[in-house]
Design brief:
The structure is a single chain. The chain is an alpha+beta fold. It has 2 helices and 3 strands, in the order H-E-E-E-H. A 3-stranded antiparallel beta sheet has the order 1-2-3, with no helix packed on it. A hairpin with a 5-residue loop joins strand 2 (36-43) and strand 3 (49-54).
């Protein structure tokens, strides 16, 4: 599998289904309030920041998933996290 191509295909599919895609953008903060995520993003090339809101936030940080939760969301993970091979996304139906 060409993992880079798989990422692009997944991003395009998500976009076709209503997701906003922010390439080369870093999430610097994410807080949940009243059922919405309030997210601060920083463009890596220009260093410009923008704030968005979302009903869902997908943490696809790979090996840095715990670090992201601790530093950007500023919470403890709600359950134990362990590194495994493979990709698994579980969402409510």
């Amino acid at each position: 599998v060409d993992d880079a191509r798989l990422v692009v295909i997944n991003a395009l599919s998500a976009q076709q289904n209503g997701a906003a895609i922010f390439a080369r953008t870093r999430c610097t903060s994410a807080k949940r309030s009243n059922g919405q995520w309030h997210i601060t993003l920083e463009a890596q090339l220009t260093k410009e920041s923008q704030e968005i809101t979302a009903t869902a936030l997908v943490n696809a940080a790979g090996p840095w998933v715990s670090s992201f939760i601790n530093s950007q969301i500023e919470q403890k993970p709600p359950y134990g996290l362990r590194m495994i091979k493979g990709r698994h996304i579980v969402v409510p139906r």
